[in-house]
Write a structure and sequence with these properties.
The chain is built from 4 helices and 11 strands; from the N terminus they run E-H-E-E-E-E-E-H-E-E-E-E-E-H-H. By secondary structure, it is an alpha/beta fold. The longest helix is centred in the middle third of the chain and has 18 residues. The radius of gyration is 16 Å and the shape is globular. The strands form 2 sheets. Strands 1, 2, 6, 7, 8, 9, 10 and 11 form an 8-stranded mixed β-sheet that branches. A 3-stranded mixed β-sheet has the order 4-3-5, with no helix packed on it.
Length: about 210
């Protein structure tokens, strides 16, 4: 597997540029001209929306939203969030759910290494801090994927120390009874993208289906 770092703060990556890079790598992997590759980056602030996003879930402040060809609904990418795009050929028969579960396990393991226990929530992708009767379920890591020609695109976003105010202007991932959080917010200490980056990279081989 190849790992390609696209850029990190202060050199934040434009989403449209990264999306085009995904398409280039995807075409090469699908054609058998390149091995499986994971693109890693930290984006400049942007909202992106999957096809199932409803108008009521979009920003209330008029912010631009980029429509993308992935599963899931609306989400945010930006500084303080580590984004990974695994572009991998899945074995036949293609099992997208298993791919999502492998990504979830990677994030669960990374969160545990920095001291935060997270869980899966039935019926919802990503990794979560469960609600406690006072606070709702809180998503630490989000997932949205697409598979074309047997090869994956898009991927995951792990909130390290991002500004969470973005979650106030949209309905994150279309979940009205949940919200977003970060490693920093849950642990009470700053956990940066640079801290979690090597932890994620050390586990990327686990995304390859056996």
């Amino acid at each position: 597997m190849e790992v390609e770092r696209l850029g990190f703060a202060p050199d934040l990556v434009d989403y449209r540029w990264a999306w085009e890079r995904q398409r280039q790598v995807h075409a090469a992997v699908a054609a058998g001209e390149r091995s499986g590759t994971v693109l890693l980056c930290e984006h400049a602030s942007v909202f992106t929306a999957g096809a199932r996003t409803r108008p009521s879930e979009r920003p209330v402040d008029g912010s631009e939203v980029i429509k993308v060809d992935r599963g899931g609904k609306i989400t945010w990418h930006g500084p303080g969030q580590l984004v990974g795009y695994p572009i991998l050929r899945l074995p036949d028969p293609v099992d997208v759910v298993a791919h999502v579960r492998r990504i979830e396990q990677l994030m669960i393991d990374v969160c545990a290494e920095v001291g935060l226990d997270v869980v899966r929530v039935e019926g919802r992708s990503g990794v979560w801090r469960p609600g406690d009767g006072v606070r709702p379920d809180r998503k630490v890591g989000a997932i949205g994927v697409r598979v074309a020609k047997g090869v994956t695109m898009h991927g995951f976003a792990l909130n390290a120390d991002c500004d969470l105010s973005w979650a106030q202007v949209i309905v994150p991932c279309g979940l009205e009874d949940a919200t977003a959080t970060s490693l920093t917010a849950e642990l009470g200490r700053r956990v940066t993208v640079q801290e979690v980056l090597p932890l994620v990279e050390a586990r990327l081989d686990a995304l390859v289906a056996s």
